[in-house]
Give the backbone structure.
Amino acid sequence: MRKRASRPNRFAAVENTAIDALPSILATGLLTKLIRARDGDEVTVEGLCKTHVEGREALTKAMRMLVDKAFVVKFKIQRAASEMVEEDGQLVAKRGGSWYTTFNVDSFAFTAEDVAAMLAETYDGGNVKSHRIEPEHLDPRKNGIDWTRPGAGNPSVGATSSNAKPWPEGDLRPTYGLPTVGSPTVGHPAAHIRKKTVLSETESEDEMPLSGRCPAGCRQASTGSKGLGEGGLAAPATRKPRLSKQQRDQVKAVRALLPRELDTALGDQLPSNVSLAVVDALATDRPRERTVQQLIEHRVLPRWNGYWASKFFAGELPARPYGPLVSMLKDTTECGNLACDDRVEIHTGEPCTACATRAQGRRADREAPQDPPSLPDEPPVVPGQRAAQESPNSVLIDCAGPYCSRSITAAAGPLCGDCREQQETAAVGAALAAQWAAEETCAAEQAAAGARLTAELNQEAAERVAREAEERAAMEEEHRRAAAAEDVRIREEFARQNPDLAAFSSRGPGPF
């Protein structure tokens, strides 16, 4: 047989070791079909049965052979918490504890190190409680391989499609193109990364559809072409992009500075939308960018101490206060000052002058006298018409607010909209003032209690020093008396033993 080299951008390349390792020609063909698929294409055994002459049982056996030989690795992932998943353009709720299956395919047999790297990235993506892997001998829990973060990937071979970036003319290096399923497309013959073709949610192990969910965080494919839909291959379900490592570090840094009670109530893992809200609040590389310390000090803590803390300790918030956290993170721009957060300048800690000027202007507009609206002359009406016109929705009354001359309908109530807003604002301000006064009183009481405790401790310390001094003086006096008594005894004993020297023993110090 003579083999002529074909142009590399028109054909799928299968590694020779895979051809030699697979005892089935059908399994080799199925592997070729899979490595041509884009990441995220939905490929099922039933779909292949409709477009090919092989039956379901034969294709199922071929797929099982690819799994046994480690050219296909199945990941069964259990969710740690409930989440919203976008499928076919619609958000679908997936409860915590549910399972979904994905698989990776390559023309090189996967090793235990490859699976450990992909599994580590899956857990690093979050919302993973448990997993199962087929073939089982590649599961890191069973072979003792450490889970490490994947690097640039391992060399492999796989066909690519039209979304591959072409190398300069004459450059024959491998590329990072993605495979495709369907009519032949243009691309490069090899890649330096493992081709990850993934499964969507399924309950059958024989039907292995490919979707946009990838355990190793592979890139989502675009919606498929018309030809793909007609061939039994559906477009992949799109999902929100996962957070990068830098964004996950930002979320961890924000959580480290949250009040301890709030952070404990949030649990170990935040939902993806809450994590995105944290990243969006930091506004990295945007005009209203905030550091983690600025976000916590000038936005989260004032709202927590001013409102949400009382609700939290009163038990009025959910067990997982994700919604209140998002509210505390929300950027409520009130003026044109980019450094203003809740009417406070984040760099100086002083009140925002732009907000103060804006509030003063609005106050002046409310207090300015207004001319009463001119009413047109009404034509005379008969009693029946007058009764109909004097309904609560048509009768005008004066606003009951101070210094307000507006006219409102009787059904609207005693206050106009501005006066009602002003009254509500005054009530909120009074509540905040009362809360601040209570906090100041509590702080003063704590300071007084601290001063009393300090005085008591100082008094106890002085009494202890005096007591120890008295005990030490008494002990020294006791030692002196004992020494004098011993000296007398020794002199008397010496005088008895030496009568001739008795006269001398009483005149000087003892012999010892």
Notes: The two ends are 123 Å apart (CA to CA). The first strand starts at residue 72 and ends at 79. Residues 6 and 189 are 11 Å apart (CA to CA).
